[in-house]
Amino acid sequence: MAIDVYLVRHGATEWTHTGQHTGRTDLPLLPQGEEQARHLGELLRGVRFDAVWSSDRRRALHTAELAGFAHPTVSPLLREFDYGDYEGLTTDQIHRERPGWELFRDGCPGGESPVEAAARARAFLAGLAGAEGSVAIFSHGHFMRTLALAWLDLDVSNGAHLGLDASAVGVLREGGRGRLIHRWNWVPDVTAAATH
Question: What structural domains does the chain harbor?
Answer without folding.
Answer: 3-186 (3.40.50.1240)
